[in-house]
Amino acid sequence: MKLAFVISPQSLLTGIALPVEMFYAASRHRVRRRSNTPLSIQLVGETLQPQRAVGGLNVQADHTFAQADKADLVFVPPMWGTPWPVISQSQPMQSWLVEQYQQGARLAATGTGVGHLAQAGLLDSRVATTHWYYLDRFRQRYPQVNFEGHHFVTHEDGLYCAGSINAQTDLVLFLIEQTFGEEALALVERQFMHELKRTFSTPYYEPGGAVHHDEGVSLVQSWVRQHLTDDITLANLAGLVDQSARNFSRRFQAATGESPMAYVLRLRLDSARELLRDTNLTVAEVGEACGFRTAAYFGRVFRERLSMTPGEYRKMVRSKLFAAG
Q1: What's the confidence (pLDDT) of residue 207?
Q2: 34 φψ region: left (φ > 0), alpha (ψ -120 to 50), beta (else)
Q3: Cut 0.70: pTM above it
Q4: What's the rounded Cα separation, in Å, for the pair 278 and 237?
Q5: Mean pLDDT (the chain, rounded)
Q6: Crossing angle, helix 260-278 and helix 215-226, to 10 degrees?
Q7: Contact between residue 1 and residue 72 where contact means Cβ atoms under 8 Å apart
């Protein structure tokens, strides 16, 4: 996994440092598990001279745009203050972003950093968002972009936009889960922001409201979300679209990248984490409310996926909540 962070004047260092640390934590976990998903990180700028960031701090690129390797994922941080001068004077950066995107990189911009993607023409006729304070001005300046004002994160065609640092954090967690898996996600949450846990299966808005275009699979997913407490079987799900279990499994996997029952289990675990955090239900009651057949099965699956018991999870998240208060 090759990450790149662009450096420009007025950059908010939080938009760089926090994703770097979160991805690094996830990658180190996978190294301990002997995964074959190594991580490399580069800071890329027009010059190798230090750039003045917020508060007078300096940040220095380790590669120029001409020297940088092809990245898998490029982050464009937000800027402090009026962004228009920096956006209008950053044509080399914007050209490099276009080049990276054309070579297959995904791009993730936050807040006013979205202006670089818009200025480069990458967001033309695509959905996007930005910080609420600048949203109307971005709409006026870039009328060809479909700015979405009701969602904090958007995605279309490998272009992610986050409205704020908090929204970027949600997006980073989602990307970590997609790259390194649920266990690494749980580790990062424990270290950084357990008290901010949300459901990351679809943390963003994108055209059609889903990550695929198979209406039958979307119907099944909607049904699952409404029937988590039921005894769900593969045959049940296949019957919703009048297919054999084997053919439906292939169809679901092609649309979502995971098997139908893995999807069911993931949603049940997401729901269980929320109930453990937000309610006083017993662990057994939480398991039952999320569709696990027995408390023992719930505890075993939870520990296998998250490397801790449900009780340990509840104790940790609540201790952080009270400590944060």
Answers
A1: 53
A2: left
A3: no
A4: 30
A5: 85
A6: 40
A7: yes
- CA-atom Rg of the chain in angstroms: 21
Burial class (CB in 10 A: 0-12, 13-18, 19+), 167: buried
Dist. CA 101–CA 154, nearest whole Å: 17
DSSP letter string over 276-307?
HHH----HHHHHHHTT-SSHHHHHHHHHHHHS
Tokens of 271: 């729901």
Contacts of 56 (CB under 8 A, 6+ apart): none
Walk me through the domains of the chain, giving residue ranges and CATH numbers.
2-187 (3.40.50.880), 212-324 (1.10.10.60)
Query: In this predicted model, what pLDDT tens digit does every residue of 226-242 receive, in sequence order?
Result: 888 899 999 999 999 89
Q: Which residues on adjacent β-strands are paired with residue 75?
A: 5, 108
Distances (CA, A) of 31 to 10, 183, 189, 233: 34, 13, 18, 35
- Say how far apart CA 184 and CA 29 lie, in whole Å: 6
Place of tokens 């995904």: 106
Query: For position 177, what pLDDT does the model report?
Result: 84
